[in-house]
Amino acid sequence: MKKSYLFLIVCFLIAFAPSARCDLSLNSVTRTGRRITERGRVAVSQGRLQIEEAKGETAPLQSVLLIHAVREEVSLMDHASRRYTVMPLSVLRGMTGQFKGILDLLPPEQRNAAAGYLNQKPLKLSVTRLGKTLNIQDLTCDGYVISSDGSPAYEVWMVPDAVFPENAADLRTLRKILKILTELAEAMPGEAGEEGALVALDRIEGVPLRIRKIGAPGSVTEIHIETKRVDPERFRPPAGYECTPGLFPGL
Fold it and tell me: Do 199 and 188 touch, CB atoms closer than 8 A?
């Protein structure tokens, strides 16, 4: 899985499912120093999740990922080619620990470029509780450190699931998807595993409100929650895009 998609999945997938009265939107801003480097927006409604992302402070947000928890399908968008793919979650589950087999699906030039990458050693992920709390957005959050191969990679601050009782059923459904992605990331080569270390969030009870990447250059992601109705069109591929076979659109 492309690292940018995996990173977005990791940051938001465990977040929410809708209550009976409203949908949920999460807006994230990632800063490196004082500079805004990434922005994201997540909408969740009736077991469906949509993720938008943009680089920098002013670029428009674009939909990159759709997940239908009931049908267990993932759709990936490529805006450059105006294409998208639809992938059953069972395909991701089957990919776990079998990344070298992906080479057979690639054209020769991409196969040669990916061979060295896929031969890297997978990373092992672990979670340590900090034993302290922090008030974020008037909510009490617990602190954790996620490590890759024993080296601290992320500090995360989580608000307990109990704060969102009306979202419990769909939250459980989405956690099942995240568990698949966790297994996937742990089987991925070293570079991708490091970037995808946040999938270890599936081992922590709660919802992330702040994520700090440890080490140079480092970054901090703040996640702000909104409760509002979401346009159903956001959970469909953009109009005029072509559905293509394969793992990733644009390849």
Answer: no
